[in-house]
Amino acid sequence: MTGSTFNPLNLAIAQGTAVTWKNDEGNAHTVTSATGSGDTYDSGNLIGNATFVHTFATAGTYNYYCKFHGADGSPPTGMHGTITVN
After folding, report:
1. What ranges do the domains of the chain cover?
2. What is residue 42's DSSP assignment?
């Protein structure tokens, strides 16, 4: 997380892979699953160099967003990203 973006915006991974998000700045961010994504997770507030890890056990497409700089929706808007699990 840098500025108000997730980098990369879209990530493709194998089933069972753990993804780690790291906040590279001082502003608080979250990693929150979007409604209807089929997997529920919320990092809580990540400040500074804080990290959050989530393992994706099932194939599918998972949208997520930051509660401070994005908005839930289909798809989410603002600061958001997508994980595609093969």
Report:
1. 10-85
2. B
What is the pairing mode between strands 51-56 and 46-48? unpaired
Q: Cβ contacts of residue 40 below 8 Å, gap of 6+?
A: 33
Taking alpha carbons only, the member of 77, 71, 74, 57 closest to residue 14 is 57
SS3 23: coil
According to DSSP, the residues that pair with 22 across neighbouring strands are 51
Using 50, 70 and 90 to split pLDDT, how confident is the model at 74?
confident
Domain 10-85 fold is Immunoglobulin-like (2.60.40)
Q: How far is CA 56 from the centre of its chain?
A: 12
pLDDT in tens, 7-64: 999 999 999 999 999 999 889 999 999 988 889 999 999 998 999 999 999 999 999 9
